[in-house]
Amino acid sequence: MRGKEMVKGKFITFEGCEGSGKSTQLRLLSEYLDKHNIPYVLTREPGGSAIAEKIREIILDGKNTEMCDGCEALLYAAARMQHLKDTVAPALESGKLVVCDRYVDSSLAYQGEARGLGMEYVGAINALALEKYRPDLTVFLDIPPDKAFRRKHGADKNDRMEMQGMEFHMRVYGGYKKLLAKYPRICAVECNGTKFQTHENIIALLKDKGII
Ligand code: TYD
Questions:
Q1: 112: Cα within 13 Å, side-chain hemisphere
Q2: Atom 15 of ligand 1 has which residue's CA nearest to it?
Q3: Are 115 and 169 in contact (CB under 8 A)?
Q4: Per-residue pLDDT tens for 61-90?
Q5: Which end of the chain is more exposed for a tag (fewer CB within 10 A), N or C?
Q6: Confidence of residue 99 (pLDDT cuts 50, 70, 90)
Q7: What angle do CA 55, 56, 62 make, to 5 degrees?
Q8: Residue 152: pLDDT band by 50, 70, 90 thresholds?
């Protein structure tokens, strides 16, 4: 854990599978923070600073089909290191609350678990990138991807979703569940109700943990 004496602001991250409603919840949280005059920086990974956004383009470019899994993991970590230096660290040092859309747990779940590189291997790569910047709290939007896709597209199965794709996303979800069991800083928020109920649950959690 990072030394509290060295970092003034609080650092929270949001995690979840595709379709978990992360973007909506981050928007509702921003509105809440604005309304309550709480200074914060909202940022995202991969990206969140000029160079990190360029690395994001390389990672997510559909034409880069031959990229190997190790390269992918290293690029996410490289983007993270630059993002920390440019955006996260200055905001934390000036005492702001930093809210980050995805962070190291995405690498552990997607590259470590779903790609099969192993969480230990991906954790080791990221240990070099993270330095002292560990989240105070990670909010995991807990909805399995098959359910999230049904909710998003109605009861009918989404035709564009290939079987292989869903298997991958279910492995990601399994990875998150392992992380949830291992790290007390990760808190699951159930997403069974409306987006407003989920938002209220998130605010209650942030208050309970002394973040806001
Ligand atoms: P994005 O469009 O931001 O997706 P989302 O809205 O679901 O957050 O794309 C980010 C993608 O990168 C997403 O599929 C998750 C993946 N990812 C990793 O595989 N590893 C990582 O370390 C991070 C930060 C993201």
A1: 22
A2: 106
A3: no
A4: 888 989 999 999 999 999 999 999 999 999
A5: N
A6: very high
A7: 110
A8: low
